[in-house]
Write a structure and sequence with these properties.
With about 250 residues, the chain is an alpha+beta fold. It has one domain. α3 packs across α4 and α4 crosses α5. The longest helix has 20 residues. It starts with 14 loop residues before the first helix and ends in an 8-residue tail after the last strand. The structure holds zinc ion (ZN).
Length: about 250
């Protein structure tokens, strides 16, 4: 069998697809590199795992320009810290926190110190086990976290549909819970959206080869104003909804 990777292929997609396939996932610049979606740093390396365990199987990549790959690496680190600190996460996240993330913190302690200076004690009640566990809560840079999930949504959309999403992207990180009285409405809203989205994607295939770290489901046109809804799940506990909302329709009068 011969390798024929350089032959000129017949166009099999429409022009728009061909054009965007040769651009960065997030802009019209020429791609220079591959970007992992979600960032590869979320997936533990083999050396930090039990022998034979591989949590980097078939990671998703999209083509990316320099800016949308390297410039956001600090945001990736912040995203990882927020995700693995979530108390509801699984054993993979906890092991990850013990290894890779803590070593990252030791090298660059400012971020962790800044977080811990502002920590408050929180008690988590486990109603099933009838126990109360003390943990900490830290302030969250929501615009920064939203930016991370928005780009991730753009990348997953590009990966599945081979074109840029040009409408609005709304992200709801359900694993972030506000502790103040005025956060109550926001918390309730987040839980309600989580339930509705879980039902909307219940019959969609679960995707992601390493569900201990990341899995997701998506559905097209769950309702008229929404083109696609994606339900992301990190470390089997930190859930995020991404809504791709269509621009408001102008009804001709
Ligand atoms: Zn770009």
């Amino acid at each position: 069998m011969s390798e024929r990777g350089t032959e000129s292929r017949q166009p099999t997609r429409d022009d728009r697809s061909l054009k965007t396939a040769s651009t960065c996932y997030a802009c019209d610049a020429a791609p220079t590199t591959d970007e992992h979606v979600p960032p590869r740093c979320l997936f533990p390396e083999a050396k930090n795992l039990p022998p034979g365990m591989d949590l980097r199987k078939s990671l998703i990549t999209v083509r990316s320009c320099e800016e949308h790959n390297t410039v956001k690496s600090k945001d990736d680190e912040y995203l990882r810290l927020m995700l693995v600190m979530n108390a509801a996460n699984n054993v993979t996240a906890r092991a990850h926190f013990g290894n890779k993330v803590m070593s990252g913190i030791t090298r660059r302690p400012a971020l962790m110190n800044q977080l811990l200076e502002q920590q408050v004690a929180v008690y988590i009640q486990d109603l099933d086990a009838d126990t109360t566990e003390k943990t900490i809560a830290v302030p969250v840079d929501m615009p920064r976290l939203d930016r991370c999930f928005e780009l991730m949504g753009n990348a997953l959309y590009f990966f599945h549909f081979k074109r840029h999403w040009t409408g609005t992207v709304k992200t709801i990180p359900h694993f972030i819970v506000g502790l103040d009285a005025e956060d109550r409405n926001g918390n309730d809203f987040s839980r309600q959206v989580e339930c509705v989205v879980d039902q909307a994607v219940a019959n969609s295939e679960q995707l992601g080869e390493n569900p201990e770290v990341f899995s997701y489901r998506y559905r097209e046109n769950p309702e008229p104003a929404c083109a696609v809804v994606m339900a992301l799940n990190f470390y089997e506990g930190s859930k995020v909804t991404i809504l791709f909302e269509k621009a408001a329709q102008t009804i001709p009068g």
